[in-house]
Each structure stands twice: as structure tokens, then as C-alpha cells.
């Protein structure tokens, strides 16, 4: 199953993605973690130091030129089948693949870097039989119609603010237009009694993440969001998301 995670910056999107991957891994699943965010923060969220994070594919100019070419005539359907195993880094039993930014793919961007990024992500989503968690940038247009329609579901993450919920609504709408209808909403740093506004169309709310003091304290000295003492709370949130995705 392939699950994409989206949301505006700062709402905890990458944290939720890391929790989902870790939860599935501890349940004995084979998990691929795909960092498709410009910020490239999924590796550190899983516990890697900055020096340990793999070089983003978009920065591997030699490989891009090798597979796609350069100049006016480039190969928009490059050979990528061997790249996942070559480029992935093992992290806590999961495999991490760092893509880098994917801009304008839905609009048909023809640059060499985006051509190979699009091809590799599409290959992973269409061909891989393992669980896959894709940490997206805000919005989903950059994935392109063919790729998005092959993801099994979208987790939209937001905080309980009007601006955050409006952006979450827009992300959900764009994803639906691209064919991704299975969507859930996760509210981060949210009181249990918070009520969603009725005038903002949003995906089904499946989980509320309370403010975790241990996470706030951890992030003063580390980017890792795993191994927190509230593991039961986190696992319950992940279980709700996965259960909904399996329906």
C-alpha cells in the first residue's frame, strides 16, 4: 500500500510520515520511505544526522545526465528500475529514498532533473509491492496525474487554525481533482474537544494528535521524532490511519 502525506509547512507532516513508517516497520512490514519534500527532513526525523542523509537524487547531476541526457533533446522516459536499490539508505529496518524537489511535473515540466524524478517516483509507486510512505511538499500538483492516481491514499495533516484548515482543504481538493479520492485528515497539536468548522470542506477526520511535551523537548536538541515515551498514543494514531486506508 502506498500512502502520501501532505500539508502546509510546520504542521507536523513529516512527523506523521515518520511515525507511520516506524509503526509499520515495527509491525513487521517492509517499508519504503520516500522524501519528496524540498526541505529533505524525513531522514533527520527518522534519526539520521545531516551527514548521514543520502544526497538527493535531484543533485546527482552525473546520474541525471547519464539517464536523461541534456540540452534540448532529453529522454522523458529514462531507465530507473535499478535506482531504488542503488540509491536507498537503510534506516532502522526501513529503506529511505531522498528525491529532492519535484516542481511543475503536473504541468509537464521537461527539465532533466524532473524527468528522472517523475519517472523514479512513478516506478516506485506503480511497481513496488511493499508499504510506501511518501512525504510530499505542500500541494500535490507536482506528482502529476498518473502518479497520484496510483497512490492508495492521502493523509492531509493540519493544525487547528483557520489558515491551516483552508490550506488542508485546498490540498484535498487538488488531490481529488487528480484522482486521489481516499483521503483522511489528521489534526496535530489539537485539543480533544476541538470542533472542525462546518464551512470548510475537509477529508474525514480520523485522528487528533495532542501536544506532546516530550516531542517539543526532544526537538530542542534532536530532529528525531521516534522513540518517544507516548508510543501508545502514537501507535493508536497510526493504527486509525492505516485502518481507514485499508477500507
N-to-C SSE series? EHEHHHEEHEHEHEEHH
Structural class comes to: alpha/beta
How far is the N terminus from the C terminus? Answer: 12 Å
Can you tell me the CATH class? Alpha Beta
Mean pLDDT: 88
Commentary on this structure:
With 247 residues, the protein is an alpha/beta fold. It has a single domain (2-245), classed as Rossmann fold, CATH 3.40.50.300. The chain is built from nine helices and eight strands. An eight-stranded mixed beta sheet has the order 3-4-2-5-1-6-7-8, with helices on both faces. The longest helix is centred in the middle third of the chain and has 16 residues, at 112-127.
What is the secondary structure topology, with strand pairs?
Layout: E1 2-6, H1 13-26, E2 31-35, H2 42-45, H3 61-68, H4 83-87, E3 89-91, E4 94-98, H5 112-127, E5 131-135, H6 145-148, E6 153-158, H7 162-177, E7 183-187, E8 204-208, H8 213-218, H9 231-245
Parallel strand pairs: 1-5, 1-6, 2-4, 2-5, 6-7, 7-8
Antiparallel strand pairs: 3-4
Helix pairs in contact: 1-9, 3-5
